């Protein structure tokens, strides 16, 4: 782990792994709180690193101090959320591969608390290293294997690190102007601070630079469509949806954002686009047909309660209150609070 001023969360992280690791290597980049003392209480080896605005270098410095044959990399605002000792052991016994853990990210959206899942390379043999100033990536030709490890992450919930991240990402873009990965990542930062114009600008750059073989390809497409909606720059969306529909046919998030895009397009010029109205319902029904997915990095709910809720909204605004309530009730069965509120509003009219 590399850390700085993580006293509020590091205990939770170390508690989650202390029974399954042989050593804990902590590289501190300048803590002024109790982070080091807490880590030392867990028997961690503490190493100090002069921060040089390069996460890949700091990761590699930490890996240099590991004595193990395998390394599990975590951040202090993460924690192991399931019983996974057996899964880790089996992967290490298999050897010659890199384990990708499922991380569940907690964040805020317009409806309140939301969660997304992504798969990231975090368990690998000694000798594997990172590259990249920020959003650093594991460099290896070893095959990536999904590992039965779930990692909770809430470091970006009610917190923004854009002041730190945007300048670092811009440095990478200045050095690699056509690298779609860094345009994709900086767009996420701009979206987080609601600078939708810049988010759209960089996602357009990212999308146009894709080979479509990238692991983040599908999410770039989805985020690009969301950026069109947020920035009110809707002109290219129909062409993007048409172009990507075959490749992303099994991705609920793609159909979910398509439904939202159709709505925004119709509202922007009803006379011109009203013929697309049925596509809104079709998009959300497709989400439900697909269900939640582990094939992609996905926002939880796009294949279930969020799609049900949006179908409820669709039927409510088109005058079919009975069908709307039925969808809201189904969404509410997942504990989805926005649907519970709509049921209360419609049944108390």
UniProtKB/TrEMBL annotation:
InterPro entries hit by this protein: Glyco_trans_2-like, Nucleotide-diphossugar_trans, TPR-like_helical_dom_sf
Coiled-coil positions: none
Gene3D superfamilies referenced in this protein's UniProt entry, alphabetically: Spore Coat Polysaccharide Biosynthesis Protein SpsA, Chain A (3.90.550.10), Tetratricopeptide repeat domain (1.25.40.10)
Domain of life where this protein originates: Bacteria
Molecular function GO labels: transferase activity
Keyword field: Transferase
A Pfam entry, by short name: Glycos_transf_2
CDD domains from the UniProt entry: Beta4Glucosyltransferase
Domain Glycosyltransferase 2-like: 1-106
Protein's recorded name: Glycosyltransferase family 2 protein
Organism: Paenibacillus paeoniae
